[in-house]
Predict the structure of FAD/NAD(P)-binding domain-containing protein.
Amino acid sequence: MRSVAFSLCIRRQSYHVSVRQLNDCEHKDLVYCETVSNRGLPNEQGPPMEPYRFKVAYDKLVIAAGAEPLTFNIKGVKEHAFFLREVNNAQEIRKRLLLNLMKADNTGLPVEERKRLLHCVVVGGGPTEVEFSGELSDFIIKDVHEQYSHVKDDIHVTLIEANDILSSFDVGLREYATNQLIKCGVRLMIGIVKEVHEKKIVLNDGTDVPYGLLVWSTGVGPSDFVKSLNVLKSLGGRIGIDQWMRIPSVEDVFAIGDCGREGRQISSEFVQQDR
Ligand SMILES: Cc1cc2nc3c(=O)[nH]c(=O)nc-3n(C[C@H](O)[C@H](O)[C@H](O)COP(=O)(O)OP(=O)(O)OC[C@H]3O[C@@H](n4cnc5c(N)ncnc54)[C@H](O)[C@@H]3O)c2cc1C
């Protein structure tokens, strides 16, 4: 089997190809694709290209389309928060932080607005968010305090979590992480986010939390592409796979990584479909 992405790179000299659909009723072993970007092509700077649509035949197909950040459909998250998934997310976070530092330099700014701009909020208390909050606070203490010494009393990191941080880890580790975060200057807040506005978060208990930078990382779930696939799903909506990563309802198709999940709850249905 040739790698689908590799064969597409050669043909279109582009790495930006999106799989739209697998198979249709008549043609069993086809992947339907379209280009999604000019990047890497000679006219990169030009207007967006019309998507180029094509099909790729396969003998064996491995789907590894990853997952997408979960927002639980909370109003305003997609519009106002930054996610912690891809390189461009990291670049956007850095850009926003530096922009807010520059804005906070404005001498005519009311104190409350200055504090808002410099308030960095992280939602989610899993390993990624704990690590990120600690790193951000470390960066603030080591670099920002030196370069922007006049803002050092106003810049803060708050981590909001509905339960304990690192709830899947044992108590000793949780306590250690909590102490380390507090030592780094991270404020820990227990709360459930109800909605997100451009400049503030509203919690379930009615508390307003003004912010200048909001980073959202509350786990991952199925992407729209995975949702659109007409295959059996595991609990949580990822592609249901058996212990050999096969998708039992489609012959010669496998799912690996974050897009698939093996589940005991669905195994009986797998068995029925496999027959
Ligand atoms: C901040 C962060 C920290 C992490 N830290 C750790 C860690 O310390 N240890 C650990 O084990 N895991 C960690 N993880 C999780 C780990 O990154 C993922 O489990 C892993 O990347 C999943 O790999 P994947 O190939 O399934 O998906 P991804 O790495 O998400 O790759 C999927 C790719 O498929 C592409 N794609 C999606 N849909 C289509 C489509 N329709 N057509 C074509 N291409 C498509 C996407 O653009 C993407 O490039 C971390 C994740 C994050 C976000």
Summary: Residues 127-147 form the longest helix (21 residues). The first strand starts at residue 17 and ends at 22.
